[in-house]
Structure formats: structure tokens, C-alpha cells
Amino acid sequence: MTVPLLAIHGLQAAYGKIVALKGVDIEIKPREIVALIGANGAGKSTLMMSVFGRPRANAGRIEFDGHDITGLSTHEIARMRIAQSPEGRRIFPRMSVAENLQMGADATEGTETERRDSLDRVMALFPRLKERLTQRGGTLSGGEQQMLAIGRALMSRPRLLMLDEPSLGLAPLIAKQIFEAIRTLNKQDGLAVLIVEQNANHALRLAHRGYVLVNGLITLSGTGAELLQRPEIRAAYLEGGRH
Amino acid sequence: MGNERTPPGFAAALKKASLSAFVALILFSLMVGVRTEAGPTGQLIYWTRFGELAGLVSAVFAGSLILELLRSWFGPLDTGKFIPAAADGPLKLAQRFFPLALLIFTLIFPVIFYEKRYILDLGILVLTYVMLGWGLNVVVGLAGLLDLGYVAFYAVGAYSYALLATTFGLSFWICLPLAGILAAFWGVLLGFPVLRLKGDYLAIVTLAFGEIIRLVLINWQTLTGGPNGITGIPRPSFFGIPLTPGDDGFAARFGLEFSPTHRVVFLYYLILALALLTNWVTIRLRGLPIGRAWEAMREDEVACRALGINITTTKLTAFATGAMFGGFAGAFFATRQGFISPESFTFHESALVLAIVVLGGMGSQLGVALAALVMIGGFELFRDFEQYRMLVFGLAMVVLMVWRPRGLVGHREATVFLHHRTEISAELSREGRG
Question: Residues B257, B251: contact at Cβ < 8 Å?
């Protein structure tokens, strides 16, 4: 059994009095894509954000590569080379695409060569960004902004990439490109990925394993293919779950 | 707000103007419509002034109508629309050389106006505000932290120099860095309590901070001299040589005939050097990770954190850097005036400097310099109409914000050019691999 890259034990988190996570256990092994699916308000984004210490865990323990990161501040956690493309992308709209990418590399230590390597990889992964390097981030289309958010996250040469709803609001074709890029990253570089999605079909097909989060608790887990076959998943998130 | 909206027609303009007139009616009905005064026996007497009220309301109505109609005819001002393609090249060239031309002009300014003391003094005043604007630009324009109490750091710098120089007899050149350091220290002190505040809340606390400093200066009589201020602040020396008529003075040493203008010219170049230092440091910082972090923080604090940026240090360095430049400017102010009192450091100054930054286009160095020139120069032009100065100022502000909501120079210069570098590196590697 391999040592997990990220291990979350009994994580509880709340926004004031509203409890969002009621004791969640998940694990991500190296070189693994893990999908976290669930309905609106199930606590998916909260889980991702509380790995970064916002909101802070009320109880439980988060370990990254064997180190306890539960009490660290957000920027310290990010500097352990956990990168995220947050909900709503949150790119810097008035800064150029190149500056956005540079921001991803600024806080992590690395040589100029390493930075150039990461940039070349991002450009290879998302050629569309290359044409837009001097453009302001805010002028990009939704899909390009998502690519930029992922590219920015990759500039820190992360060991774990966390994506919050990368397909939200994108045309199916663009969403497919994004998922394809994630698959490539995982295959080529062995990057571990945690993907939070409402688009369960896409996410489970992409992922090696998946977890289903309902009202702050993990109710099901298994390989992507297994979960896709489960009738309750199909009913809740694939056929019946279409809004 | 209304950029993508189609231009409204006459009816819509009429409706908007009526609404403005209605608001004006409510506002002015008590402010202008009714005049109250204490009667001869102390009772309240009042009389109505409906004529003036009607005049004001119709002025608001007409102004609003004209504004709306102009807007719908012109559409949002887009310079590209008015400028033919042929003029584009020379215009770009002019844009590139304009800052350089401006710099050369400021350098030879004292030579041109050597005989005109008033204009030289005005130049010094404008440059002081350019420097203050550039200093505040770090905090407001780059880091996006709305600071309404910037005058506090100006005051700290001025009092630091005044007290150090009058009590310990230290020279200006030793006090200048000390004043900057002390102001930066107060910047950090202000930064800590407001780390978690944003927008309006931050503005209120910084406003209070500015007032606290001023009130302390007024009330701590034993140290600051209270409302009487500090007099007899030493004038700056030309690197140790005093600018006095005596035998060891500047004029005598350099074999010149003594003239009081020497000091004015020296002060002019001093503030010019300080301002250019501010500008140079800011431009350099913008290209470094810390400057980029300031700008990114202005855009999205949460995203910054997630990228591993330490927001605490980023905010504190922004406050400290801005405050330090304010402190330098304050020390200069003290040595120029020779006398300081809390009266020079009111909220009005903070508002003026903030207006310069906002009008100039937040974050634009050239814009801030132009705005300082326009505002301070404009104030001097309208000195004869002192009563109406603020009115004209307010009107100019409204007009500018309607037509150029991003400020005089809204354009933002990018600091990272990955494109060229990667192209070169790609070419090199191709060559290397054959």
C-alpha cells in the first residue's frame, strides 16, 4: 500500500454555526486523480478550501506527504506545493495573462530555468494562452480563464492540484478540452489531482477513484467506473440530477 | 456600469434629469430653501428663499439633461473613435516621448523661471504633491488599500525632522532617512489593526488614524508645541554648506553673488530628486514579486493566498513603503517652511492627495504627476475666486469621472513579458538540438 499524498481524517468544518463538514475521511495517493462529487451545498468546495485552512478545521487532521498541515496558514500550505484552481477561477482581471502566470510562480522557490520549464509546459498544454500572453486576464473568454487558472496553479510546479468545478459555465467542447488537459497532466507528469465537480459523468470517467459527499459526510466511495455503475449515483447525479 | 447599455433616448434623459432635480429639491429645500438665524433676543428666526431654491433645482435639471444628452450622442468616450488611423503612429510616438519631455522640462524649469520666485515656489508645491501622490499611489493605486489618513505619515515625517533637528541639532541629510523610517514604522503600526479590513471599513479606520495623529500633535504640548507648532526648523544645507549670505555660505564658497533664489532652486531640485526617487523605487518594485503581489492583492486577495502569497507581509510592506515616501515629503515640507503646526496636516490634505491619485488613474505614475499639476496648478489659478475653488474642484471631478472613469491615464503597463523570453529560449534550444 502506498503512502497517501493527502490524507484527511475526521475533518469537521463550519461557517459560524452552520456545519458544512461533519467528519470527512478521504485520501489521495500519488499519481492519482480523485473526484469528489455531490449536490449543491454538500460541502465539496468547503472540503477543498479547508485543506487550505479557510475555513479552519474544527476537528480532524489533514496530512500532506506525512506532514500535519491542519494548523498552517493558507500561504504556508500553498508553499508546500499544493495548488488550486479555485471556484470561480479568481484570475487577476487587470493583470496580463503573463503576469497572472508569473504570480503562480512567484511565491514558490525555484530557479529561472524551472520557471521557464513550467511556462513551456503550460503553453504546450494550453496553446491558446500563448496567443493571449499580453492580453488582460479579464478580457479572456470563460474557457480561457479556466485554462489560465489551471495554468497559474501549475506554475508553482505543484505536487497536488485541486480543481473546483473546472467545467462550470463552459461549453461542452471546452469542458472536454479541460478534462483532457487534466488527464494529460496526470499521465505525463504523474500529477495527483483532486477534482470537485457537479458534472459527475465527466469527473468519474476521468478519475481513478471517487467520493460522494452528501450533507457534509462521505456516503460512497470507489473507483470511478464502479461509482458510475451504481444505480443511486446514476439516479442522483447523472439522470435524475440534471437540472 | 452602463457601458454595454444602448445610449438612452431623450425620454430616458428627461426621466433621469427629473430624478436628479427631485433629489436636488429634497437636499436643497432645507440647505438653501430655508435660512435660519439667531434673532436679536436669541430666538430662532427663519425665512424662506424659494427663488434660490428654484434656481438651483433647475440648474441641476438642466445640467443633468445636458450631461445625459451629451452622453447618448457621444457614447462612452473611446479615443480610438476620434483618431484617424494615420495619426496613430505619430501619436504613439508622442505618447512615448511625452514623459521624457516632461522630465526634461522639470529639469530646466528653474533655469527658465529663475527670475520668477512665485512660479518657482509653485513648482516646488506641485512637486511636493506629485511626490505625495506617488507615495499614496503605492498604497491605493497598486495595493488597492483605500487610505484616507495619508496625511498622518506626512505629519510624522515633518515632525520627526522638526523635532530631531531642533532638539538634537541633526542635519537634514541624517534626519531625512530617519523621518522615512519613523513614518514607515507608523505605517506598519496602522497596518496591523487594519489587516482584516477592506474597502469602506478600511477607509474609516485610516481616516480616524489621520485624525488621531493630528489630535495628538495638537494636545501633546510639551513635545510638539501644540497648536503653536514648531518654529525655527533649520533650513537644508547644500551637503553641509549653508545657503546663507555669510563667508562660509554657498554663494561665497562658489564665488557667486548671494541671492535668496539659490535656496529656492536648491529646494526645487531637492524635491524633484525625492519625487524621482519615489517614482524610480515604485517602478522597480512593480517589476519585483512584491510589487506584483501588491497588484494581485488589489485584484483578488483570496486567490493571492491560495498562490502562497503572505497577505500580512504584503499589506504591511505596502503601508510601510507608502508611509515612508510620505515621511520623506513631510521632512522636506518642514525644512522648506521652517515652521510647522498641526494646521498643515488636516483631512483636507489627505483628501487632496487621494483625489490626485484617483484622478490620475489609480496605479499610473504619469497620470498622478499630471493630476497633481492640474489640481495644484488649478488651485493657484483660481486663487482669486477662493470661495468658488472647491465648487470648481468638485465640478471638475464629476466631469472627469463621467468621461474618464479610470482616471486621466487609465492604461496599465504590464511588467512581465514572458512571451519574448520564451520565444528566445525556444529558439535557442532548437538551435542547440540541431
Answer: yes
